[in-house]
Amino acid sequence: MILDRITGPNDIKKLKPEEYGQLAGEIREFLINTISVSGGHLASNLGVVELTMALHLVLDLPKDKIIWDVGHQSYTHKLLTGRREAFEALREYGGLSGFPKRTESACDAFNTGHSSTSISAGLGIAAANKLNDSDGTVVSVIGDGALTGGMAYEALNNAAQLKRNFIIILNDNEMSISANVGGVSKYLNNIRTGQTYNKLKKRVLAVLSKIPGCGNFLINKIRKTKSGIKQLLIPGMLFEDMGIKYIGPIDGHDIERLVEIIGEARNLDKAVMIHVITKKGKGFAPAEERPEKFHGVGPFDVNTGDSLKVKKTDYTTVFSNTLIELAHKNPKLVAITAAMPDGTGLAAFKKEFPDRFFDVGIAEEHAVTFAAGMASEGLKPVVAVYSSFLQRAYDQILHDVCIQDLPVVFALDRAGLVGNDGETHQGIFDLSYLTSIPNMSIFAPKNARELKEGLEFAAEYSGPIALRYPRGTAYQGLEEFAEPVVFGKSEVIYREKDIALLAVGSMVEVATEVRDRLKEAGYHVTLVNARFVRPIDEQCIDELIKTHSLLVTLEENVLNGGYGEKVVSYVNRIGSKTDVLTVALPNVYVEHGNIKVLRQHSGIDAESVTAKIIDRIKGDN
């Protein structure tokens, strides 16, 4: 196998051009077989095999830098820099990350995980190279989906002023996670299909080159005026108008052509955009046919593409079904997503209510203010977004929604630990940043039924409110405990004395096991489903401190700014001597790995929590 000869950076340069095609095939086979076992991002990686190879053939790593926007398409890059054996532990705790990671390799120039950041980061590296007197080439690879993010245009505006080489690869596969939407998609489609200019240029130059004496003179004249021709024949020429050299579109699977173009682009003392057309999922029929299904996948059957996991009802499905029910009852209810209709469960809503569904592209900031505008005119917008991605819109939540006290519902999917995608995707900060906003209410359901009831409550609530629920199978336990949702009120599931467990959302299931363990050890234990993190139920705490010597808060959020700190603050404020033990994630960035393993290492699994409580009690005696 040719892939066996790639053991470190720049080894690909030792290959003969006639071996490139075979290597591309071997890489695809390796990725399909590996991801079918480990899970991961498949379609995006299959689409950039040749592009990645071309970059590695031209560039000298790690001196030259590649910044991968989002970064989920960096698997081939990792293979070509000698990390093939590490794929055995892909996305496992302590193993190979599914995203670029500077601590993993000097060839990973910049950590990425969220969209639309690569041009800004690359521009910063290019500016640093100039000040450091380094002649390294900097390449930012960004997808057409990520180009809907406003940050990308802030960077492009800045890049136009650059007076040294900086290459932007626009990887155009007509997809983000789902199909692209909006004006940017339409603009790029016009470029893809508007080949008039390229065809005309080839024909004219071919004819002129045959004219003896003056042919070359005329060709040079035309080259000096080609910008004007482009303006006439290609709609917009947005990038050229901004002062960025535009090349393309070209076939993103033609390695020799890519090598030629990237090599030429390195010689220009300005920002250059190379527009390449790729096929997401290329080389694996199921992924080509349904690239959105194979964006991020669990283990699957290589022959059929079918998932090997048994499908169980998850929180996203509960949210989706409930939202559709509510929309039938309330014609003012609308749903908004930032390029995640499938991941957030809104694809079904779109089919049912196409006129009340809005996909704004990868633009979380815009999504929130867009929702605020709708709410100001009497609609009831529900913004469905991953917890980690809502961080990008903090200012819009505070300034445009909450200051005006607008009734926007934020459905925070993937809250808490999400597992294998790692630091950039863990939803472990939402309680901290949302509770810092004065009138933001936050509800965390204990199980599937309570998510449904919480969403029903939120649909009628008159101010901004967030529903926070985890990734994965919806907890079906404690169904017999179903007190109506009342604003700001907790639910006491088991009432005893001495020790009170106050658990938030997903941690109610853990707290149930903790209570069982403590009961076996002879302790009396009350279990409270906190429900509301903002506002906290002060009346419930007042009652608990009368009969309990220890309150234990449990949450799947970092300690700083979380629910536990709110309880501690309240207990101290009222002058109570009741001890409070806060169980939360440490104030660190939690790396990738299985959620069960991450809980154990973070000390929030049932065994660890039980041990902490017993140690606390024995330490006080």
Q: What is the fold's blueprint, element by element?
A:
Elements: H1 20-38, H2 43-47, H3 49-58, E1 65-68, H4 75-80, H5 118-131, E2 138-143, H6 150-159, E3 166-172, H7 182-193, H8 196-208, H9 215-224, H10 226-233, H11 238-241, E4 245-251, H12 255-265, E5 271-277, H13 285-289, H14 315-329, E6 333-337, H15 347-352, E7 357-359, H16 364-376, E8 380-386, H17 387-390, H18 394-402, E9 409-413, H19 430-434, E10 441-443, H20 448-460, E11 465-468, E12 491-494, E13 498-503, H21 507-520, E14 525-529, E15 532-534, H22 538-547, E16 548-558, H23 563-573, E17 579-585, H24 595-602, H25 606-620
Parallel strand pairs: 1-2, 2-3, 3-5, 4-5, 6-7, 6-8, 8-9, 9-11, 10-11, 13-14, 13-16, 16-17
Antiparallel strand pairs: 10-15, 12-14
Shape summary: elongated
Total DSSP E strands: 17
What composes the largest sheet?
Answer: 7 strands, mixed
Mean pLDDT: 90
The largest sheet has its strands arranged as 7-6-8-9-11-10-15
- Rounded to the nearest angstrom, the radius of gyration is 27 Å
Q: Roughly what percent helix?
A: 40-55%
Give the termini separation.
66 Å
Number of discrete helical segments: 25
Low-confidence stretches: 224-236
What does this structure look like?
The protein has 621 residues and is of the alpha/beta class. The chain contains 25 helices and 17 strands. A seven-stranded mixed sheet has the order 7-6-8-9-11-10-15, with helices on both faces. Helix 6 links the parallel strand 2 (138-143) and strand 3. Helix 14 packs parallel to helix 20 (448-460), helix 16 packs parallel to helix 18 and helix 21 crosses helix 25 (606-620). The termini are far apart. Residues 224-236 have low confidence and may be disordered.
